[in-house]
Design a protein that fits this description.
Blueprint: E1 6-11, E2 15-20, E3 28-31, H1 38-52, E4 59-64, H2 88-96, E5 102-105, H3 106-117, E6 125-131, E7 135-141, E8 144-145, H4 176-180, H5 182-191, H6 198-205, H7 209-233, E9 237-241, H8 249-262, H9 265-268, E10 272-275, H10 282-297
Parallel strand pairs: 1-4, 4-5, 6-9, 9-10
Antiparallel strand pairs: 1-2, 2-3, 6-7, 7-8
Helix pairs in contact: 3-10, 6-7, 7-8
The structure holds zinc ion.
Length: 298
């Protein structure tokens, strides 16, 4: 029997999940953390792969919470620091006795998942914005990742949205991430006496105007970022994913309003901003798609 053997491995901040092609719902997982050593990571990844693909012949795509440099080493990986600077594909091949896996940034996998199985299905030019702890965006054309740097759109979450805005984690100022990411909203929440960024939505629903204003500002920032990306990429649909997107219309309505206000009219008018639909499974689904693509290409 000949069959396409493809496996996806999604490495997150608190766990990694593996599944075989066509069976993302049956994913198995292992815990990881900032304290995980490189040896522990390799052992855990090897255990998951051995369980999902006992023969060891499947093509594997690994979605990572960092970028892969052209020389194959991983950039800074704050959620699992032991991975920083590691040539992971070669190491996994050596240690696990398998072919080198395909390594992709997690958002590149997520945008493929959403474009082929989520809200981007059937959309030729698609952009996915992730507002999680940080902020980033990735795009597909015809279901394929648009790769301008590091296997995606580089550090697209650091587009300028407020020229004199807050200092950003990247060292710049006024980036989307500095205004609309999870850590930025947590910072603003504390200023008005709330504990977490998630508390902003609850407080806004209860009538707190200061909380609503913070979410509105984040939405405006998102709209400005979409305006800038749209001038370059001409997306038809922009999906918003990540924990911050739970704010829903309190984020998306001001984003659409700002896009219409500042965007290039003939480009902005064809852009639709919507919530992403696959949630946290988008990354694993996309990793499986990329593994299948790689398996077909061999
Ligand atoms: Zn920045």
């Amino acid at each position: 029997m000949t069959e396409l053997r493809a496996v996806g491995l999604d490495v997150g901040g608190s766990s990694m999940r593996a599944a075989e092609s066509g069976d993302a719902a049956a994913a198995i997982r292992a815990p990881v953390s900032a304290a995980t050593t490189l040896a522990e990571f390799i052992e855990a990844a090897g255990g998951l792969l051995a369980a999902v693909d006992p023969g060891g012949a499947a093509t594997v795509a690994v979605a990572l919470p960092t970028f892969v440099k052209p020389d194959g080493t991983l950039l800074d990986c704050p959620s699992i620091p032991a991975l920083t600077g590691v040539r992971l594909a070669a190491l996994m091949a050596t240690e696990l006795g398998r072919s080198e896996p395909l390594l992709v940034p997690d958002l590149a996998a997520a945008v493929v998942g959403e474009s082929r199985h989520g809200v981007g299905l059937g959309v030729d030019s698609f952009l996915c914005v992730a507002l999680g702890t940080g902020a980033n965006a990735a795009a597909t054309r015809g279901g394929r990742v648009v790769d301008t740097a590091f296997g995606c759109l580089g550090d697209a979450g650091h587009v300028l949205v407020e020229p004199d805005g807050p200092r950003c984690s990247c060292g710049g100022r006024g980036c989307l991430e500095a205004v609309a990411s999870g850590w930025a909203l947590a910072r603003e929440a504390r200023v008005i006496g709330l504990r977490t960024g998630e508390d902003l939505t609850v407080a806004a629903e209860q009538g707190r105007e200061d909380a609503a204003a913070i979410l509105d500002r984040a939405g405006v920032a998102l709209g400005r970022a979409v305006a800038s990306w749209s001038a370059l990429l001409w997306p038809e649909v922009v999906a918003v994913a990540g924990g911050v997107s739970a704010a829903g219309e309190r984020l998306l309505t001001p984003a659409r309003r700002e896009l219409a206000r500042v965007g290039v009219p003939y480009i902005a008018e064809r852009v639709t901003i919507v919530p992403a639909t696959l949630g946290e499974t988008a990354t694993l689904v996309g990793a499986l798609c990329l593994a299948e693509d790689a398996a077909r290409a061999t």
